[in-house]
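Notes taken during the Thursday session

The instructor put the following on the board and asked us to keep it in front of us for the whole hour. The protein is Cell wall hydrolase. We were told not to look anything up and to reason only from what is written here. First, the residues (216 in total):
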Amino acid sequence: MSFASRVATFAALSLSLVGMIAQSSAGLAAESPTLPTTASVNQLAAPAPVPAPIPAIVATTTPLPADASATPSDDVEEEVAYPTLAAAVADQSVPSNAGDDLRCLAGAIYFESRGEPLAGQLAVAEVILNRSQSRRFGGSVCDVITQRGQFSFVRGGKIPTAPVNNDWRTAVAVAKVALKNAWESNASEALYFNARHVGGPSRVKVAAIGNHIFYR
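Then, after some discussion, the predicted structure tokens were revealed:
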């Protein structure tokens, strides 16, 4: 083999060897894992951001005024300070259907003291109410009035029906004042009364109003 042929053969072998080495390096590079860059490492190592705490929501209620929830009952009548007995009587309404106590008491006021001063009519009502409370004369207003031998206008244990006139309406109004204790009577402690021209019992005199004297 000539020198030129040897050189050519050696060059071919060298090129072939270089190609094989290059292919081997490329294969190794393909199989080797890709290492993360510094930027990638920093991104992986950085902690996840912590969300800001949500402020707690506290439910608050605004207190109502002391009297905002207070609703007065319609069944309770407010007490009224009247300047005079006449004002108290004038302020009373006359119901079309009166209860037993009101009806009986108004009947007694009408038949015993119509035409008397308002204070005298109220005093008659006070005597009847005091008797009903003492339980010595009957358990109710009507029982006190219809008790045998106590009131001369009672006939057969019954109270006569009064005519509907101004005297009757006044008697009803006075009875309501007495039942509601809307005015203090001068005979508030009396249990008995009689006309002035009739001899009085041996009892303590409480008041003398109009044509009647009241005792306890």
